[in-house]
Amino acid sequence: MRSKLLVVGTIAHDTIKTPYAKVERILGGSATHIALASSMFNLDCSIISIVGNDFEKKHLDLLREKGINTSGISISNKGKTFHWSGEYFSDMKTRKTIDTQLNVLEEFEPKVVKELSSPDFLVLANLHPEIQISVLNQIKNRPRLIVLDTMNFWIGTKRKSLLQILKKIDILTINELELKLLGRKKSLSDCLKVLTNDLSIRFLIVKRGSGGSLLVTKNSFDWVPSYPFCDVVDPTGAGDSYAGGLFSSLDINKNINRKSIIESMVYASALSSFTIESFGIERLLNLKKKDIVKREKELRKIARV
Ligand code: AMP
To answer: Per the CB 3.0–4.6 Å rule, which of 103, 107, 235, 282 could disulfide with 278?
Structure first.
């Protein structure tokens, strides 16, 4: 039987500026990147999200063509789709959010229909923590794995609800800046302690862009490098496609423990290295699993994993 994956997150229009180019209102969002990244595996993937009256049908068709169940995507006629606009600096790492327009997301009250309420994997992608809580509360049986991703916007504005839901998850994926905002300590290692000890996060994955990713538990610390030979065009969605690659390859390994997570982190690193070679979801759309596996093998050699 195929494993069921439920992703709740944003479907967005993204405006992205790099030192070399600018694109306006392209398809993006945390749920979009995650679902597309995981669609290369034999999973039944469904999205719960909301879009507005400016959302083009061809984008929903595109998700469906990739085998993604879109029945949980509400189409609101009361406003526009979530819009995020960001700019990258010349190092192509540092990002500044120019604008976040929640639009229809502001009124979103997700309904998890029976058909979607018993997933094996639940991904609470970058989104309003109260929406993440609402979805989790509507799930019937505890999923085999609950992964949560968030960002500075929510850590800053919805800290209380975020801390509430962090107690109920298995894996948290964040970047270094978010780790500092969450941990509220000067040193990174003290922030790690706050998350793994005080907040009892079982598996913490810190995404460090070209600096690889760390798996931190209460008693262990492992590092997986990033793929070093890619030409960065647009880093947007790298973190989300990393998350999508991570748990979709975990499904194959079945046992979810430190060892299988490290294995999957190598796959996730390889997958996300493709995402950043084009704007938005473009590269994910024509990516073949064999390309990822080839890069994954190279990475294993480099990393000796
Ligand atoms: P990443 O580059 O992996 O951190 O994710 C980029 C995606 O996150 C973009 O496609 C945005 O639409 C989406 N995004 C940006 N800000 C937010 C936010 N505050 N909440 C949810 N999704 C967001």
So the answer is: 282
Secondary structure class of 223 (helix, strand, coil): strand
Q: How confident is the model at residue 135 (pLDDT cuts 50, 70, 90)?
A: very high
Q: What is the 3-state secondary structure (H, E, C) of 230-246?
A: CCCCCCCCHHHHHHHHH
CA atoms within 13 Å, Cβ hemisphere of 88: 21
Which residue puts its alpha carbon closest to atom 16 of ligand 1?
84
- What CATH number corresponds to the domain at position 190? 3.40.1190.20
Residue 41's pLDDT band (cuts 50, 70, 90): confident
Residue range 53-73: mean pLDDT, rounded: 98
Report d(CA 218, CA 146) in Å as an integer: 18
291 C-alpha to center of ligand 1: Å? 25
Is the Cβ–Cβ distance between 73 and 82 less than 8 Å?
Answer: no
Domain interval for residue 241 = 4-303
Tell me if 246 CB under 6 Å of ligand 1. Answer: no
- For the CA of 14, the closest atom of ligand 1 is 12
**Any atom of ligand 1 within 6 Å of the Cβ of 16:** no
Q: Decide if 279 contacts 26 (C-beta within 8 A).
A: yes
Counting the structural domains of the chain, the total is 1
